[in-house]
């Protein structure tokens, strides 16, 4: 089963040059297979950088990361990513976006339609298959994005503040729906956010990074029962975690 | 829907109005008693010239020759521009190799090549097509390069993390993302093709619309000159319209259609 290990990872932008900036300092982390993990920290703590390295979008200057013991180098469909920005391809319909990954690997028309049907349903976009992304709201486009990554069937799901640009209500709805989808497939998720409540609601484990350079400041195990529901956001246990983490982030 | 319809028809009406005004003013001027028809031929003379040239077959021959040159120059020029532009815009090595060259050649107006082309290749069909090809290539390639360079990084990253190879990213992401720029490049190339066509035919041709213009000047047939100008304007306009239709079809996905 896929397990990610971050092994003594340090990243310095412009290493060896004057004005070099260390953004991540000796990070050691384990993400257990099938778990939901969040990384929180104030802006500039290097959390997005760490996630992009897991995706293989760039290489750390020191240390390494492994997925199932294999060193992570370059991008791979096993490590899917949902970006903060809108990454839905505007020149493809919703359905074509969803089946993009399988199509890359030469899936037949029948396989593609099957995947399109399954994942538009799963992310709640049934009836929108033939729409252009420009016709959808921001929240719906994010659903396309998530459906597309799921339809590509990665082992690990990396999410970089995916709901950051959505309004509060849409955001809570998307969080619940994400958990429902995740519960059905149990992929390892690493979720970056600066929203404490979002992290608690979603995660088994929350990693708090300190800023400049980013170091692992605290690891919070969240033992709220699953499946989770919105009422839990107001329980004493939830709020206690929230208070604890809130104190750790420098406001 | 009603609003859209009224907007579209308003646009149509206003466009027709401005053209009608120009015609009206022209007819009014040419009807003045002191108008010199050798300088401003009346509309009827222009129509008569149209009829004469049409029945003698000289107009269709000229139009055919010119359209052939445009088609060849446009097709070859834009195809080369698409290939070179994609390579320069997508592969750093090719960019470093060719970009300075393209930038150096870009400010040179295509017509400046006419003397050297005549010296090298004479005044035959090849030279005329070559000039149009150069003009189409230069204006189009710049747009293709710009399009490839403006592909949003997040699309490239998204495709890569879904397992797309560098070439697959190019084919499935970079080219479609650059389509708006590429189509614009094609449209500008079409306009450039007309501009250089007439210039090349004015200088050295035995047929074509530019030749008829030159002939009209030589024999003081102002009505013929006017007639050809209208024909060129009309042809270029129709072609651009067709292009816009193609563009609207290809760009259904875009926020900024039209």
TrEMBL record, chain A:
It holds the Pfam family ABC_tran. Keywords: ATP-binding, Nucleotide-binding, Transport. SMART domains: AAA. Signal peptide: none annotated. CDD domains: ABC_NrtD_SsuB_transporters. GO terms for molecular function: ATP binding; ATP hydrolysis activity. PROSITE patterns: ABC_TRANSPORTER_1 (PS00211), ABC_TRANSPORTER_2 (PS50893). Residues 4-236 form the ABC transporter domain. PANTHER family: ALIPHATIC SULFONATES IMPORT ATP-BINDING PROTEIN SSUB, TAURINE IMPORT ATP-BINDING PROTEIN-RELATED. Belongs to the ABC transporter superfamily. This is NitT/TauT family transport system ATP-binding protein.
TrEMBL record, chain B:
InterPro entries: MetI-like, MetI-like_sf. It is a multi-pass membrane protein. Residues 59-243 form the ABC transmembrane type-1 domain. Probably part of an ABC transporter complex. Probably responsible for the translocation of the substrate across the membrane. The keyword Cell membrane applies. Keywords: Cell membrane, Membrane, Transmembrane, Transmembrane helix, Transport. Its main location: membrane. Belongs to the binding-protein-dependent transport system permease family. The chain crosses the membrane at residues 12-29, 67-91, 103-123, 129-148, 169-199, 219-239. This is Taurine transport system permease protein. It is found in: Cell membrane. One of its GO terms (biological process) is alkanesulfonate transmembrane transport. It comes from Marinovum algicola. One of its GO terms (cellular component) is plasma membrane.
């Amino acid at each position: 089963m896929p397990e990610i290990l971050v092994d003594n990872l340090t990243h310095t932008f412009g290493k060896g040059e004057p004005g070099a900036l260390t953004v991540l300092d000796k990070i050691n982390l384990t993400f257990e297979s099938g778990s939901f993990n969040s990384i929180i920290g104030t802006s500039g703590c290097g959390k997005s950088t760490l996630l992009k390295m897991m995706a293989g979008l760039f290489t750390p200057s020191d240390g390494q990361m492994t997925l199932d013991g294999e060193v992570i180098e370059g991008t791979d469909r096993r490590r899917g990513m949902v970006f903060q920005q809108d990454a839905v391809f505007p020149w493809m319909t919703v359905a074509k976006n969803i089946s993009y990954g399988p199509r890359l690997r030469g899936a037949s028309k029948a396989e593609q339609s099957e995947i399109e049907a399954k994942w538009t349903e799963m992310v709640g976009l049934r009836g929108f298959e033939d729409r252009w992304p420009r016709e959808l709201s921001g929240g719906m486009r994010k659903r396309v994005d998530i459906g597309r990554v799921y339809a590509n069937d990665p082992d690990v799901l990396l999410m970089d503040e995916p709901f950051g640009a959505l309004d509060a209500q849409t955001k809570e709805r998307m969080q619940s729906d994400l958990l429902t989808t995740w519960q059905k497939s149990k992929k390892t998720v690493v979720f970056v956010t600066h929203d404490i409540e979002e992290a608690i609601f979603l995660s088994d484990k929350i990693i708090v990074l300190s800023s400049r350079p980013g170091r692992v400041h605290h690891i919070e195990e969240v033992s709220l029962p699953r499946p989770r529901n919105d009422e839990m956001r107001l329980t004493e246990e939830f709020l206690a975690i929230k208070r604890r983490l809130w104190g750790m982030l420098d406001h | 829907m009603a609003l859209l319809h009224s907007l579209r028809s308003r646009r149509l009406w206003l466009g027709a109005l401005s053209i009608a005004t120009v015609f009206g003013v022209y007819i009014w001027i040419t009807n003045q008693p002191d108008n010199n028809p050798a300088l401003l031929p009346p509309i009827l003379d222009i129509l008569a010239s149209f009829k004469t040239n049409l029945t003698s077959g000289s107009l269709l021959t000229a139009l055919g020759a010119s359209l052939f040159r445009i088609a060849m120059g446009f097709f070859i020029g834009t195809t080369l521009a698409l290939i070179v532009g994609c390579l320069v815009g997508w592969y750093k090595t090719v960019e470093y190799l060719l970009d300075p060259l393209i930038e150096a050649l870009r400010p040179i107006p295509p017509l400046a090549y006419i003397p050297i082309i005549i010296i090298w290749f004479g005044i035959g069909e090849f030279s005329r097509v070559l000039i149009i090809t150069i003009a189409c290539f230069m204006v189009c390639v710049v747009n293709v390069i710009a399009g490839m360079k403006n592909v949003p990084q997040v699309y490239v990253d998204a495709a890569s993390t879904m397992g797309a190879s560098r070439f697959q990213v190019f084919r499935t992401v970079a080219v479609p993302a650059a389509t708006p720029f590429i189509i614009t490049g094609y449209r500008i190339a079409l306009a450039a093709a007309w501009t250089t066509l007439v210039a090349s035919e004015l200088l050295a041709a035995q047929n074509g619309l530019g030749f008829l213009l030159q002939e009209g000047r030589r024999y003081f047939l102002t009505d013929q000159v006017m007639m050809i100008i209208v024909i060129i304007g009309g042809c270029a306009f129709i072609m651009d319209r067709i292009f816009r239709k193609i563009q609207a079809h290809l760009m259904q996905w875009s926020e900024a259609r039209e």
